[in-house]
TrEMBL record:
Species per Swiss-Prot/TrEMBL record: Kaistella yananensis
Designated name of the protein: SUF system Fe-S cluster assembly protein
PANTHER family, per database record: FE-S PROTEIN MATURATION AUXILIARY FACTOR YITW (PTHR42831)
Source superkingdom: Bacteria
Gene3D superfamilies with a match to the protein in the record: Fe-S cluster assembly (FSCA)
A Pfam family this chain is assigned to: FeS_assembly_P
NCBIfam families linked: SUF_assoc (TIGR02945)
Record-annotated MIP18 family-like domain positions: 14-83
InterPro entries: Fe-S_Maturation_MIP18 (IPR052339), FSCA_dom_sf (IPR034904), MIP18-like (IPR002744), SUF_FeS_clus_asmbl-assoc (IPR014291)
Length: 108
């Protein structure tokens, strides 16, 4: 049975909430506010596609961070599968951080 728009919106909100519990170990800000999550797409069947990046291709958590993101998305009720795509296009830069992240890091 297909999910309603409201159910998809709820799943999206819960995914973001869970992603905000994942932190880059070198920067004391969650990966969502850092701008490492480029896109989250949710189908009406509950399949989720996450497009994300890392601060650098040589990031020390290049293997563990995507696995943690997949786990956090999988935990959300209504998610049936997770397709995680790691990309470096466009390359991450500090301009992708939210105002909250910049404030947290004293960049104002």
């Amino acid at each position: 049975m297909a999910l309603t728009d409201d159910q998809i919106a709820d799943i999206g909100e819960n995914i973001i909430k869970n992603l905000k519990t994942v932190y880059d170990p070198e920067i004391p800000v969650d990966i969502y506010e850092l701008g490492l999550i480029y896109d989250v797409q949710i189908s009406d069947q509950g399949a989720v596609k996450v497009i994300m990046t890392l601060t650098t291709p040589n990031c020390p958590v290049a293997e563990s961070l995507p696995a943690e993101v997949r786990e956090k998305v999988t935990e959300v009720e209504g998610v049936t599968e997770v397709d995680l795509e790691l990309t470096f296009e466009p390359a991450w830069n500090k301009d992708m951080m939210s105002e909250e992240a910049r404030f947290e890091l004293g960049m104002f």
